[in-house]
Amino acid sequence: MNAKATFLLLAALSSGIAMGAEDAIATAQVRKVALFKNGYNWVEMCTTLPDAQRVRITGMPNALLGTVWWDAASGVRQLEGGSVEVESVMESYGYADLLMANAGKQVKIFLKKDRQTEGKLLPTAKRETPRGSFPKQERAEVVGAPKIFFVQTANGVQSVAAEDVTGVDFAEAPQQPMEKVEGNIVTAQLEKPNPGAELHFGCVSAGMSWLPEYSLELEEEGKAKLSCRANIINEMTDIKDVELRLVSGFPALGEALMTSPLNRAMKLQDFLKRLGFLTEERNDSMRVKRGIMSAGMTMPCVAESDDFEDDEGSEGSKQVEDLFYYTLPHFSCERNKSILRELFTCEVPYSHVYTCHVPNQSMLERLSRNGEPVADVWHCVRLSNTSKQAWSTGIVTCTVDGQIAARSTLYFAAPSAETLLRLNKSMQARVQCSEELVKREERNAPGRRRDSVTVSTFRGTVTLKNSSDRPMELRLTKEVNGLVTEADKEGKISVSPSYSGNPRSVITWKFAVQPGEEAELTYTYEYEND
């Protein structure tokens, strides 16, 4: 079943536009929605065309630049964006607005200092916005409600100051104050009338998003139960009985801050200024910080996209390129509401892992004291995704025997992949690090600023004590400013060159420490003195 996409402004316009309008009216209906996690969504919509060559389409979302696509088989030649001004009830108003809207009615007005007056409310002259040939942005502002009103009483005409009014009673139901509201409209121009034909179109819009929430119950050794729920936030429109897709991944949304000119939300000068601002290369880093990809994105819409078709009874998420889709059929949600929906529950294998990151020697000098631990050891679990659906990055609550053990972040894992989940800091592991100078020597440095350099050789020791009652599988990394030449116990060495001094080295050890035991790791590195 399709659902009417009744956006607030355009919904208010549809009734006001229909009366006396030359264009026929068609209301767009949401068919399918794919939600990204950054507040944007891909919407597929449909409407039935009336017997007309020009059709005004209501219910269209505010699309992003370059993402509006329609099915050419319907005979639509072009879409036109414009604006219309209609009267609408004021969202909030005061006594002055109410009195101005009810001229000619019998009224009793209550005033300050326990005064009141009763009679017929006389009309008040209105000052309108000049029309003529003035550009819209140069028109004078409409003057608001007057400060003085006049009432025809039994004893003559009495003036009332708006600021003195404390209450109003009408002899009959009052008219609510109205105001002029300008909204955007979209008109379809057809090659020829095509009554009864369906017009399918789609676009990238904003107003709906989702985020996953996980619950992880660590059961018997090596087994865990992972449950996932989707928290869906809808600020776009009422949707009913639609096919909803929740997208996990990193889609490239080009110019994600730019709405389509079809919406007429910005004037030409502002649009060009904004477009130039976003396309300058110097802003690429800023876009990345905001989580907006600089690459373009196009998703042409067809009547029934194959990307949205699943075999009946299929299980798990579906992969399209590098994105993963979770399907929620027959989904409904009113505007400005959130829904928490079950996605899946699965059994997953896990293993305990302890991680520790020891900083470089300059950081150790500033942060550590003699005899104190130099780094934290974190208790983690390694989860293997043996299910058929991807795990999207989200918050996870971990419990053991019904008691909360951690609240952490579960990072993305495709089917058959692994992810590491940090639980809490281990209070039963102690890591210390010490270094000693082994030798210092002068070496030739051809091609350098000086003929020779002073090289110091250091030997370091990292000690880890396991005070718990369980074995600890350790993954320990050590950063070094300098060139690491040796690391025992099969430590893996990676070196990154630096153009301003000594290279940066990282040593990675993977080993196990039994309960009550102590492990000692050694390494050697060279450091060039300035």
Name a few traits of the molecule.
530 residues; ten-stranded mixed β-sheet; 5 helices; elongated; mainly beta; eight-stranded mixed β-sheet; disordered N terminus; 3 domains; SH3 type barrels; 51% strand
Notes on the structure:
The chain is mainly β. It folds into three domains: 215 residues, no CATH class; 83 residues, SH3 type barrels; 100 residues, no CATH class. 8% of the residues lie in helices and 51% in strands. The chain is built from five helices and 31 strands. The strands form five sheets. Strands 15, 16, 20, 21, 22, 23, 24, 27, 29 and 30 form a ten-stranded mixed β-sheet that branches. A hairpin with a 3-residue loop joins strand 8 and strand 9. The radius of gyration is 34 Å and the shape is elongated. The N terminus is likely disordered.
Fraction of helical residues: under 10%
Structural class: mainly beta
Helix run count: 5
Spans of 5+ residues with little confidence (pLDDT < 50)?
A: 1-21, 129-143, 280-315
Total domains: 3
| Cα-based radius of gyration, to the nearest Å | 34 Å
Number of beta strands: 31
Give the topology, please.
Elements: E1 3-4, H1 8-18, E2 24-27, E3 29-35, E4 40-48, E5 54-58, E6 69-70, E7 76-89, H2 95-101, E8 106-111, E9 115-121, E10 148-153, E11 156-161, E12 165-170, E13 178-190, E14 198-206, E15 208-218, E16 223-234, E17 239-248, H3 268-279, H4 284-289, E18 318-320, E19 323-333, E20 337-358, H5 361-367, E21 377-384, E22 394-400, E23 403-410, E24 418-425, E25 429-444, E26 452-466, E27 472-481, E28 483-487, E29 492-496, E30 504-513, E31 518-529
